[in-house]
């Protein structure tokens, strides 16, 4: 037995030092040297205060802001969560109906009436954003045409022309509005 | 379904299949001991353990060494999980885990399952993520690959008793294959936006004046090995749906590629080691075919959307978006679901529990087929080779000849052992699901009622026994019953499966390799690939059809009839 136990214990012990401490710490140092913003969570600061992460969705409910998707986590970025409701769930159908009722004329963009996988989805679909223009413009006393222009600049297409779906980062858009872009 | 969606699916699969060729040759060179660029580090590890890397082991010795490493890893991880509250690198001051959850989690990571009855950002300190979970992500993956290499050697050699040296295989696969790939991928993921920091969670003041606590941590390196090693355990609770774990379509491409590339590459390695590249290509073609078919089926179901929600007024164009992220949509969510369950990864970028009934049935079925399409790193290849032995056996029965595979006669002992291995999965999955369904304390954990509740339970035991790790996440799994029985299912799915498989390897190694004759069934052409696919579907899948009829199929037809639960 000793012929197996000693190599097993040393292998696990030394690999824990190498793979569990040395490698991740080296990676942390390298990442912070090469990509400091990303390694730190892509945090956005205004006047010396962190106001969010460029990659993480944030909750908005005031009329003057664009609203994100429904979230099972309430946009708590320390506890991401999905609804985990199945397709035949009566509760889910009820929730979808209530969101559709509050979202203007049908058909409603699917992302506006369904909760995301993470509960922290930073994006909405361009169509979802367009349907919010009238409300946001009225609340801000802005011309709708001008708001549409700003929105158009915030519609992201597929990465490298191929990857991913068209989308609008809600926090980035709302920040641009507050900055009086 | 859209053209752009299909283009992304095709690109990901093509990149994985193309990279598999050079990577497979490299892994073969590692298996033959020809890659030695970290020789001093390797020598240090051997010296410390008193290991002679040139000493060959028979199948029993090889398996015993493997079990010893896994046991030592389990004990260390269990201790870390229990004691993390008293250990450093714990900025949130998280306490140790309960014994039930610590047992379940330690078993889960040692068996390459990565079933998670906890949420990373709420339960695990940075030290536990790094020194506990990340280490087992490496070692469980290297364990699987080492076993697969030993199985290949058994088929390649004639009349030998030894399969190689487990300590050397484990060390070399870790140092030369997994570690460099994980460092490169980890850095690429940081560039995409995945955090890698030891700083505490960030407290943000939101635009509307509220506060948002943003969980951070040393995620990128762990995410890299979680995908490369088909482990699948998320750094954050919602796994690769989390915008910091998988920020955009490029990081999604890299991670989905990483899930598939090593299982695909090991087919090439197999072809190389047995001296006939066509043999590996045949296995790879079957794996690729199933992943593609699974993706198409899930994509079609999810893109069609939920009929009840469409009737309620949703725009049908985006498909079923409940539990999915806007940046991925239905195409990338479908591809990921097929890749993560075909390979036994278990990481997710969308919530399978909220897929349409048929869209959720396909991932479940891919797990139940035995995790060989392409399966976990290593475990997928040796599982596939077991099905290949069964395929030549069945073909032999049909034409009345002694079956042989790669010139090795396949006889009663091998087939008995193969059937023993293949029966472990249905026995564990169906047995434990049946028991749980009649226990009120277990059904109290279900989040959904009706047939979907049964699917939730069935998925949990399939995922555990298949060493997959994904979930219909509505199930509240952090209870003593589920922590214990799912832990048991993981142990059975890993060890009760691989011991008979390695016994087959030992038995095959001892046989001479006869030259091909006129009556030999070629095991590389489309005919054999079709036969193999049929055997996987019938032997691997048939016994699960009744349970699928009671769960997802029943739900599908209730949904069409407008019934909710």
Automatic annotation (TrEMBL), chain A:
Q: Which UniProt keywords apply?
A: ATP-binding, Cell membrane, Ion transport, Membrane, Nucleotide-binding, Potassium, Potassium transport, Transmembrane, Transmembrane helix, Transport
Record bears the keyword ATP-binding: yes
Quote the subcellular location field of this record: Cell membrane
Chain positions covered by the region annotation Disordered: 105-127
Q: Which GO terms describe its cellular component?
A: plasma membrane
**GO MF annotations, alphabetized:** ATP binding; P-type potassium transmembrane transporter activity
Task: Name the Pfam families on file.
Answer: KdpC
**Membrane topology reported for the UniProt record:** Single-pass membrane protein
Instruction: Point to the regions of Low complexity compositional bias.
Output: 105-117
Q: Which function does this protein serve?
A: Part of the high-affinity ATP-driven potassium transport (or Kdp) system, which catalyzes the hydrolysis of ATP coupled with the electrogenic transport of potassium into the cytoplasm. This subunit acts as a catalytic chaperone that increases the ATP-binding affinity of the ATP-hydrolyzing subunit KdpB by the formation of a transient KdpB/KdpC/ATP ternary complex.
* Subunit structure comment from the entry: The system is composed of three essential subunits: KdpA, KdpB and KdpC.
Spell out the family assignment given in the record's similarity comment: Belongs to the KdpC family.
NCBIfam families assigned to the protein according to its UniProt record, in alphabetical order: kdpC, PRK00315.1
Q: What is this protein called?
A: Potassium-transporting ATPase KdpC subunit
Which organism is this entry from? Teichococcus aestuarii
The gene it comes from is kdpC
TrEMBL record, chain B:
Cite the GO molecular-function annotations of the record. P-type potassium transmembrane transporter activity; potassium ion binding
Keyword Signal on entry: no
Q: What are the UniProt keywords, alphabetically?
A: Cell membrane, Ion transport, Membrane, Potassium, Potassium transport, Transmembrane, Transmembrane helix, Transport
Instruction: Fetch the Pfam families from UniProt.
Output: KdpA
List GO terms (cellular component aspect): plasma membrane
Give the UniProt subcellular location, in the record's own words.
Cell membrane
Q: Which InterPro entries match?
A: KdpA
User: For this UniProt entry, which segments traverse the membrane?
Assistant: 62-81, 138-161, 173-198, 249-270, 282-301, 381-399, 420-439, 486-506, 527-545
Q: This protein's superkingdom?
A: Bacteria
How this chain sits in the membrane, per its record, is: Multi-pass membrane protein
Keyword Transmembrane attached = yes
The free-text function statement in the UniProt record for this protein reads:
Part of the high-affinity ATP-driven potassium transport (or Kdp) system, which catalyzes the hydrolysis of ATP coupled with the electrogenic transport of potassium into the cytoplasm. This subunit binds the extracellular potassium ions and delivers the ions to the membrane domain of KdpB through an intramembrane tunnel.
Q: Which family does it belong to?
A: Belongs to the KdpA family.
Complex formation: The system is composed of three essential subunits: KdpA, KdpB and KdpC.
Instruction: Cite the NCBIfam families for this sequence.
Output: kdpA
Protein's name in the database = Potassium-transporting ATPase potassium-binding subunit
Q: Which gene encodes it?
A: kdpA
């Amino acid at each position: 037995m000793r012929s197996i136990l000693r190599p097993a214990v040393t292998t696990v012990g030394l690999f824990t030092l190498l793979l569990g401490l040395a490698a991740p710490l080296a990676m942390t140092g390298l990442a912070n040297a090469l990509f400091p913003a990303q390694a730190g969570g892509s945090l956005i600061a205004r006047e010396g205060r962190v106001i969010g992460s460029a990659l993480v969705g944030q909750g908005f409910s005031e009329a003057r802001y664009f609203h994100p998707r429904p979230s099972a986590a309430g946009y708590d970025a320390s506890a991401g969560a999905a609804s985990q409701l199945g397709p035949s769930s009566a509760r889910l159908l009820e929730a979808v109906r209530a969101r559709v009722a509050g979202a203007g004329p049908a058909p409603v963009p699917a992302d506006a009436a369904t909760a995301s996988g993470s509960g922290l989805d930073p994006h909405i679909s361009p169509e979802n954003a367009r349907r919010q223009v009238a409300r946001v413009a009225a609340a801000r006393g802005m011309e709708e045409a001008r708001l549409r222009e700003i929105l158009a600049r915030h519609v992201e297409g597929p990465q490298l022309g191929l990857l991913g779906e068209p989308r609008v980062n809600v926090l980035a858009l709302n920040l641009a509005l507050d900055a009086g872009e | 379904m859209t053209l752009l969606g299909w283009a992304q699916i095709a690109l990901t699969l093509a990149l994985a299949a193309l990279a598999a060729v050079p990577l497979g040759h490299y892994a073969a060179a590692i298996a033959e001991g020809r890659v030695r660029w970290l020789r001093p580090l390797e020598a240090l590890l051997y010296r410390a353990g008193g290991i002679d890397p040139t000493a060959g082991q028979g199948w029993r010795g090889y398996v015993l060494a493997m079990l010893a490493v896994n046991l030592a890893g389990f004990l260390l991880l269990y201790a870390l999980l229990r004691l993390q509250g008293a250990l450093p690198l714990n900025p949130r001051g998280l306490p140790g885990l309960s014994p039930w959850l610590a047992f379940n989690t330690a078993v889960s990571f040692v068996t390459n399952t990565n079933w998670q009855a906890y949420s990373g950002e709420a339960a695990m300190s940075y030290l536990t993520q790094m020194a506990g979970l990340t280490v087992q992500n490496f070692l469980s993956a290297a364990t699987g690959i080492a076993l697969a290499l030993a199985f290949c050697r058994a088929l390649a050699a004639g009349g030998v008793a030894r399969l190689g040296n487990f300590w050397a295989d484990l060390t070399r696969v870790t140092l030369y294959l997994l570690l460099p790939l994980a460092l490169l991928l980890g850095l690429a993921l940081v560039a995409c936006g995945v955090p890698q920091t030891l700083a505490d969670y960030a407290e943000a003041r939101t635009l509307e004046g509220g506060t948002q606590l943003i969980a951070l941590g040393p995620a990128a390196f762990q995410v890299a090995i979680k995908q490369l090693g088909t482990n699948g355990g998320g750094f954050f609770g919602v796994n690769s749906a989390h915008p910091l774990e998988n920020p955009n379509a490029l990081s999604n491409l890299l991670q989905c590629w990483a899930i598939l590339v090593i299982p695909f590459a090991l087919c090439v390695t197999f072809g190389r080691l047995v001296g006939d590249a066509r043999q590996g290509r045949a296995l790879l073609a079957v794996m690729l075919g199933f992943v593609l078919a699974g993706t198409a089926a899930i994509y079609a179901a999810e893109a069609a959307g939920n009929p009840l929600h469409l009737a309620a007024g949703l725009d049908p164009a985006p498909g079923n978006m409940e539990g999915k992220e806007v940046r991925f949509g239905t195409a990338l969510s479908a591809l990921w679901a097929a890749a993560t369950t075909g390979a036994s990864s278990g990481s997710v970028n969308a919530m399978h529990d909220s897929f349409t009934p048929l869209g959720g049935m396909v991932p479940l079925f891919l797990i139940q087929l035995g995790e060989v399409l392409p399966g976990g790193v290593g475990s997928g290849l040796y599982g596939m080779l077991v099905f290949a032995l069964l395929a030549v056996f069945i073909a032999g029965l049909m034409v009345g000849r002694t079956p042989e595979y790669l010139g090795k006669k396949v006889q009663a002992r091998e087939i008995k052992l193969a059937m023993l291995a293949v029966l472990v999965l249905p026995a564990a999955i169906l047995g434990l699901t049946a028991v749980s369904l009649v226990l009120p304390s277990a059904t109290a954990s279900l989040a959904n009622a009706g047939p979907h509740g049964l699917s939730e339970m069935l998925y949990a035991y399939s995922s555990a026994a298949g060493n997959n790790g994904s979930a219909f996440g509505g199930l509240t799994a952090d209870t003593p019953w589920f922590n214990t029985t799912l832990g048991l299912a993981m142990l059975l799915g890993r060890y009760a499966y691989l011991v008979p498989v390695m016994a087959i390897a030992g038995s095959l190694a001892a046989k001479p390799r006869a030259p091909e004759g006129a009556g030999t069934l070629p095991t590389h052409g489309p005919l054999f690939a079709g036969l193999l696919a049929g055997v996987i579907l019938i032997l691997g899948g048939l016994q699960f059809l009744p349970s699928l009829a009671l769960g997802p199929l029943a739900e599908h037809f209730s949904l069409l009839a407008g019934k909710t639960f």
